[in-house]
Amino acid sequence: MKDNKWFLKPNVIIEPLIERWYAWSHLISPATAAMNITGRHLKIMNSYIQSPEIHAAAVMNPKMLGGPFMDYKVSRVDDIRKLREETLQKQSLAIELSDAIQQLDRMLKSHAKGYSLESLYPQVPELLRGYVELKYDLNNNPSFRLFESLLYKSRFYNKSWQSIALWVTDNDERPFCLSTARLDEPHVLHLPVPFDHDGIDALARMKREAGSIDDIAAKLGVKDADRALFETFFTQQEHPVYRKYEGEHVRMRYFGHACILVETKDVSILVDPLISYYGYESSVAHYSDIDIPDVIDYVLITHNHQDHILFETLLPLRHKIRNVVVPRTTSGALQDPNLKMAFNHAGFNNVIEIDEMEELKFFNCVITGIPFTGEHSDLDIKAKTCFHIAIDRFTFLFVADSRVMEAKLYEHVQAVTGDVDVVFLGMECDGAPLTWLYGPLLTEELPRDKDQSRRLSGSDFTKGMHLVDIFHPKEVYVYAMGQEPWLEFISTVRYTDESNPIVQSNKLVQECTTRGLIAERLYGEKELLYTYSEVPA
To answer: Which has the closest alpha carbon to 175: 88, 72, 267?
Structure first.
């Protein structure tokens, strides 16, 4: 195996991990990572060690999908006990940071009564001193903002926690990634390389460019004992060649969930990348990374949820990406980490922040950030944006999971943008409660009735139709429903015909069709061609 004609197999997963947990964006930023270690990882591990049989039963119950239960085929109590001990040791400073954040919050609630906060700085936990500013809102509610950039440059950010796991998949079945740690398995190779390692780019390139196994093994530091397994990830069979789109239209390809590729002969734009694999039989027709251009001019990120920022997809694409566009936030709020910093520290150096109603112009295209409301459980989170894309006179509006809380907002937007040709709208209108995703960041228990009322919900029929009535699109597509089988490990969605999001989206599609519009709920894959100013070609 010393020649240079080896390709990475198309169904090899490059899975980013942080201390064996699936690396989603909240595990990158030091403060949110600390809170997730104590508020999610350790709690789940302690629960599993105490009652593995409860976890085994829960993961067999469809109603418990996405719950805090570890999903293993056999008992792994000893392995989880070992992982817990390693966590307590290796991430002890993060655990102290989490405790300090909770202490600070309690101190402010007890002592900040509307008077000057200056006298409280000596009471800030020593670990946090110099990393926070104390503040009030206009109603004298105390809080603090983190100097997140300094936390990244401190001992609280530790790249040695990062690694990748390599393995070959032959199906779409995987445990829920936020609840199940990646343990040692005979078919999985763990490599202690940080996310910004150029070896990840070199490995990913080998899906299209033949290379040397010896060279890539050396670059990634593969041990001799792991070499035999590492070699099983490669093939001498060349993959299908990507053909650059050279047509005169705008081509739209739906890759599943919220992932849309917009191409012209001059530019390619990929929204919320989440790419499935190929090389095995699937019950659902779908595009995969063989359908991704060699160069992606702009990747657009709508918001900071685990099904819209997937480093498992993004890291292997990094060498192709010229620019990543993320919503801007400088709030310093614990629940609102800065996305540019997260991407920078994951090895993306070409990150552009965009504000609401701000424009990016290039070639014959204009990308505009559009206000994104709701779907974040009423938390003060600014790192979220919808996108309006204009290619000459043809326009797309990607609303993602935005819940139309106030229709007049989008009336104001429409007064600026004008009507649009195509709307993409997420309608997962039930959504999980606040604590499902943000629970680890809370410093006190949230009553169940309040938790259940504050959900991660997209638009229902009524709210979705507001967009149709305001922007007068020719076409309406429901997307970002998490229905595809390769999404279940990250979204845990299983719908029936009676599920409310299906009922609501069916109603919207039917109403749009009745009005003479083209409407569809997307699933699997879809390709459309548009002229620059009219309708589908």
So the answer is: 72
